[in-house]
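Researcher: I've got a protein sequence and the SMILES for magnesium ion. Could you write out the 3D structure of the bound complex as structure tokens? I'd like something to compare against our soaking experiments later this week.
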Amino acid sequence: MIRLERFSFTYPGEDQPALSDLSFEVPAGQFYGLVGPNGAGKSTLCYALAGMIPHYFKGTLSGSLTVAEIDIAQSSLGELAGTIGLVFQNPFNQISGSRFSVRGEVALGLENLGVPRDQITDQVDETLEQSGLADLGERSPFALSGGQQQRLAIASILVMQPAVLILDEPTSQLDPVGTSEVYALLHQLVGQHETTVLIAEHKLERLAEFTDNVLVLNQGRLLANGPPKTVLTDPLIEEIGVQPTRYTQAARQARARGLILKKDEFPLTLQDAQEFFDDAAV
Ligand SMILES: Nc1ncnc2c1ncn2[C@@H]1O[C@H](COP(=O)(O)OP(=O)(O)OP(=O)(O)O)[C@@H](O)[C@H]1O
Ligand SMILES: [Mg+2]
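Model: Sure. Here is the predicted complex with magnesium ion in place.
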């Protein structure tokens, strides 16, 4: 569904590419995570996947990038709008400000796609409900808390039911409950509509729980691409400045102090950790 071949991108006036020689594929209906330290290129990759690069951010491209068989560089943002949705890292960038209500804001994308009005009403109602915004439909988008704005940003993309959904750290302003709700919703979408999802996220425990595969970026390069359990417990991610889960950290410390001699892989989640320490205690 998403396919990159030796894809590189350099912002105008920069010496170093922000994305360098990336090759990977995301099959249809898969849920992929994207991790990397600050400045690794996660947002830049999200922009490229959604066609913001090169249609909004200019720069130098090489290699190829196709999403749903569409060559991103050869098509317009209008053509991509119904197929690929991007949720920005900062919800302020998503909210158009041209509508006075949450409901109007969520309807905007469907209006731009030319969807009939009664269908818009139904889809907006359903999305507001799913996103936990049903009671806030008449509120001004600017009278929402950070977490509510983040849910609005996600809702305004979800409502269009894109085949490919790209999310750039969409839960950064949400508390653990809000984060769980967003992930539950994404998980449901993948199950129901076979949406292909790629999510940049620093909450590794969430990725452990929900993703099929995780990509690791550092300085614009792809360092790893594999199952969350393998990739996210690899010492390599800590070396590049990504904080492992507390369970991985606890197990590493226990081993470093000689409390545990086990050599097999480190735990990623609470459940893994329980097994890891139970086994070690025998
Ligand atoms: N508009 C721009 N013009 C020039 N350079 C940019 C631009 N946007 C980002 N960069 C640079 O590209 C590199 C990748 O940045 P990017 O924002 O994609 O990283 P990130 O992984 O999303 O970081 P963060 O975790 O802070 O969100 C960085 O070196 C950054 O300084
Ligand atoms: Mg970013």
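Model: The chain has two domains: 2-228, 245-282. The domain at 2-228 is CATH 3.40.50.300 (Rossmann fold).
Researcher: Great, I'll pass this along to the crystallography team.
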